[in-house]
Amino acid sequence: MTIDDSASSSEKKRGDQLSSLLKSMGGGGDCDRPACDDTKSALSAALQRVGEARVASKNSTKQSTYTECPPTREEIGTSTWSLLHSMAAWYPTSPTANDQKLMTGFMQALARFYPCTWCATDFQQNIELNPPKTETRDDLCIWLCEQHNVVNQKLGKPLFQCSIDKLDERWRKSTDPKCQK
Ligand SMILES: Cc1cc2nc3c(=O)[nH]c(=O)nc-3n(C[C@H](O)[C@H](O)[C@H](O)COP(=O)(O)OP(=O)(O)OC[C@H]3O[C@@H](n4cnc5c(N)ncnc54)[C@H](O)[C@@H]3O)c2cc1C
């Protein structure tokens, strides 16, 4: 067997493992949400890593020098905004009373426990002045965009145009070919 044959056979094996894993998780149909794409690529990457780790442990006894450090304020900020805008982008169009209550509670908990204390204090004041708008998906997306702009302005960063079209393009479904996975 050549190296090429062996590579394509392990790719096929990974493809089969991926299909059976997705089936066992109840997937397999069309994926609407990006989370589904992410699940596929995360599973595929995990299977690849397992394969590579097996080969590496056979071939080498060297210790990895890679260190994972706690996130910086900037990293936490960017990750948090990504989560918040994505949650808003996929919030129900007609949320139930309970959905609205949970989302408001989530924002309040974030403002209470956000790990940068002075950011948290400002965010608490901001959401007291302008409480979360949770009646519809559009309301929530635009409210959050305005909250993010309050912080952007404070930090001298560019402001984002808070229209639902711009927000969906950035956070829900981009038309940019570079964003197609
Ligand atoms: C609740 C909260 C409060 C914070 N308060 C502070 C603070 O007081 N002081 C501080 O130093 N840092 C604070 N941060 C962190 C700060 O906002 C940034 O996340 C951090 O400085 C990194 O900035 P960035 O340039 O990577 O882009 P980020 O501001 O993290 O933005 C990430 C991406 O979001 C998109 N985006 C930008 N603005 C908007 C918008 N209005 N609506 C939708 N999408 C947008 C852009 O594509 C951008 O690249 C806070 C973060 C959060 C979540």
Structure in words:
Helix 1 (3-24) crosses helix 2 (34-59). The protein has helices at residues 3-24, 34-59, 73-89, 97-113, 117-129, 137-155, 164-171. It folds into two domains: 3-59, no CATH class; 73-171, Up-down Bundle (Four Helix Bundle (Hemerythrin (Met), subunit A)), CATH 1.20.120. The mean pLDDT is 83. The two termini are 32 Å apart. The longest helix is centred in the first third of the chain and has 26 residues, at 34-59. It is mostly helical. The protein binds flavin-adenine dinucleotide. The site of flavin-adenine dinucleotide has 22 residues, from helix 3, helix 5, helix 6 and helix 7. GO terms for molecular function: flavin adenine dinucleotide binding; flavin-dependent sulfhydryl oxidase activity. InterPro entries: ALR/ERV (IPR039799), ERV/ALR_sulphydryl_oxid_sf (IPR036774), ERV/ALR_sulphydryl_oxidase (IPR017905). Its cofactor is FAD. Its EC number is 1.8.3.2. Residues 57-67 have a biased composition (Polar residues).
